Amino acid sequence: MTSRRRAPRRALNVSLAALAAATAGAAWAQDATQVDEIVVTAQRVQENLQSVPVAVTAFGAERLKEGNVESVLDLAQRTPGFTATAVDPIQTNFAIRGIGSAQGISQNAGGDPSVVVFVDGVYAGRGGTPDIDALNLERIEVLRGPQGTLFGKNAVGGLVQFVSKKPGDENSLQLEATYGNYDRIALRALANWAVNDTVAISAGLSRKVRDGYELNVTTGNRVNNEDLWAGQVQLRAKPSDTLEVLLGFDFTHQDQKGNPRHNICNPAFNNGVHCAGIDPDPRRVNAYTDGYLKRDLFTYRAEVNWDTSLGTLTSLTALRQSEFANKTPFFSNPVNPPNQIESTEIGQEENLQFSQELRFAFNAFDDRLKGQVGAYYLREDNDRVQDLIQDFATPAIQGSARYPQKVQATSFALFGQFGYAVTDELTVTAGARMTWEEKDGRFAGFKTGGPGLPPPLGTLGGYDVRASESWEAFTPRVAVDWQPRENLLLYASATRGYKSGGFQGLSGTAKGAATPYDPEFAWGYEAGAKTQWLDNRLRLNLSVFQTDYEDLQISTLVPLCCVVVSNAATARIRGAELEFLVKPFAGLQIDGSYAYLDAKFTDYVVGTTNNTGHVLPRSPKDKYNVGIQYTVPVQDWSVRARVDYSHQAKSYFDASNIVNQTQDAFQNLDARLGVTSPDGTWELALWGKNLTDELVRTYATNYPLYQQLLAPYAPPRTFGVTLIYKR
Fold first, then answer.
1. Which residues belong to any copy of the TonB-dependent receptor-like beta-barrel domain (predicted)?
2. Is 220 exposed, middle or buried (CB count within 10 Å of its CB: 0-12, 13-18, 19+)?
3. How many alpha carbons fall within 13 Å on the CB side of residue 281?
4. Residue pLDDT, tens place only, 132-173
5. Under a CB-based contact definition with an 8 Å cutoff, are residues 523 and 478 in contact?
6. 8 Å CB contact between 135 and 160
7. Closest CA to 228 of 248, 249, 207, 242
8. What's the rounded Cα separation, in Å, for the pair 248 and 121?
9. What's the pTM?
10. Domain coordinates in residue numbering, the chain
11. Rounded Cα distance, 206 and 364, in Å
């Protein structure tokens, strides 16, 4: 990691210290604004955040706007224990408390994530994350730790929930226009129409274009740009006081240039040939083509809520369709044509997902018993073709491979959770989920190559195999929470999480493609406290945890092929997390979090390599953030300023903990200054992100054969202005 500006960081530290000293000595005014109540659905029913015995961080719509949160990457900077790295909008790796998806999961039609995304209750397994601006969001929730009982498979590390606002009873319109550096233009429209007393419709539309952050010196074009359309439409009908019907549709369309990897010469393997001519500037890449990224994502959703005398019955039916294609150049050498390397990955995927969930939530025994039971069905049809091209200038060692993959996955689950108030202060909760899964796949590999290349590209011919496997998993949860007084909740829990097994479609051999890898399991133990103090001006939440993983799915790089996934390890993760929000006096808010993480393999041996005791990938030991927001009236106008600062310690991208496959400790500084008209109709805001222009790798992969290291980077410093109109 390289920091290009040190002075702003020192100035920020001085400012924070001065503000903390001033705040400590300030009188706690009786009219100070209290912290707002936040409603979450971390247990699939609406509850106050402070009464839920689960580690969850929630961001409301206003907090997302003031913090200029536009993606899950921004969200991760402000959430304890949560890291996110993105190669592109499709290949985004999330990790919560040290557990994330194996690196090659986006190449593999038979794999699944470890941290899942739900959009309005719908499981979003593939196709990338939605565009935040297109969704008329009410909040985003991040649940940390295994969530195997109520949310099911693949929430072994945790999950992220996007929750949209339901169409309301009042007409409204919001228009936004943004212009920023790199010729960024972002337009957004949100509308709500109350058709009558029983029907309302809401809609959102987002359009974004931006020049690329990087220059491809070979083609002369800007790459890693943005060109996106996204939208959402919802209809809400209440034909009676006991029946509610919600219909929803959202889409995302992208068609933009690719994200060529920046090549870094690896001194350990450099013979002065393959590394010659590589531009050291991290914002300049040497690629023979710009590549491309295309994505179409559609979701259709129908939710019915029926209140009966016994409880509430919910039916959620969803169809999710995604198509994407990407061409990503990896290596090239512009100086030595006889030894030129052109390595490219081309992927195309079509995914169709259908899900149906039934839930029944009820209260009994004078509300001392609160429970819910349900059933869940999921079917995914995934069709993927992966091309790996090695185009050397020497014909004898040219090679390429094509890996078609077709996978049909089905999952069925029964679940229930019951909480009983033993006393007015003490509640005991128990739940369980039983899951049955099956995956059927057809995997092929067609390879051509010269004698100079090793297998798999150096092997002529191919394979075409079929494979099938089924698994089942029992994932219980027990918890105890005690509320000795108002605004104080103490809790302890034990939860089992589960991640699906899969197939290695890109293994390069028939045997490897037909051999499944096992599911991943985790037991999570957690104790925590949720508190509010000083007449509800201070919110302070704390959690400590230990998570034991077995059959951990680990990715391994196969030279000249791909990243393969296998069950290779057990791990133990321990840590602590702290979140706070304080309003010392009217107009001032300070919020932040801290996470400590000790995530290590307890048993991980691959061949002659012993990784036992190594740190898990994407597991920084320390991570913290602080935000300061101040609102002041100026002649009936409202002026609001916010600064967000975050720090993340060093982390590894590889289980081997190789020195050059790391991201050193880094900081991030964002700011926003907004002015709102007296009637709240107009708002003008100036904003900036990564103001110190930190250079941050999103991952790093070592390729000794090429004597090079691949390391894409996060966005540089960006800034702009946003105009908002509301009525």
1. 249-691
2. exposed
3. 10
4. 877 889 999 999 999 989 997 888 999 999 999 999 999 999
5. no
6. no
7. 207
8. 11
9. 0.91
10. 32-623
11. 45
Residue 63 CB partners (closer than 8 Å, separation 6+): 69
Mean pLDDT value across residues 163-185: 97
708 pLDDT exceeds 70? no
As given in the structure block, the two tokens for residue 55 are 């580690």
Token digits of residue 606: 């691959």
Least-confidence region, from 181-195, 243-257, 451-465, 589-603: 451-465
Q: What is the pLDDT of residue 689?
A: 98
For 247-267, the DSSP string reads EEEEEEEEEEE--PPPEEE-T
Mean pLDDT value of segment 340-358: 84
Residue with tokens 């226009």: 177
On whether the CB atoms of residues 45 and 374 are closer than 8 A, the answer is no
What whole-number distance in Å separates Cα of residue 277 and Cα of residue 381?
Answer: 44
Strand ranges (DSSP E) for 195-258? 199-210, 214-216, 221-223, 226-240, 243-257
pLDDT of residue 452: 46
Strand partners, 187: 177, 207
Summarize the confidence of residues 615-626 as an average pLDDT.
95
Q: How many Cβ atoms are within 10 Å of 236's Cβ, its own excluded?
A: 22
Which residue is associated with the tokens 């924070």? Answer: 16
> Which of 259-273, 483-497, 644-658, 689-703 shows the lowest mean pLDDT across its residues?
259-273
Q: Which of 38, 57, 20 is nearest to 594 (CA)?
A: 57
CA distance 658 to 617: 11
Q: Strand 158-164 vs strand 115-119: parallel, antiparallel, or unpaired? A: parallel
Q: Provide the CATH number for the domain formed by 32-623 in this structure.
A: 2.40.170.20
Q: Give residue 19's pLDDT band: very low, low, confident or very high (50, 70, 90).
A: very low
With b meaning 16 or more CB within 10 Å and e meaning fewer, what string describes 699-727?
bbbbbeebbbbbbbbbbbebebebebebe
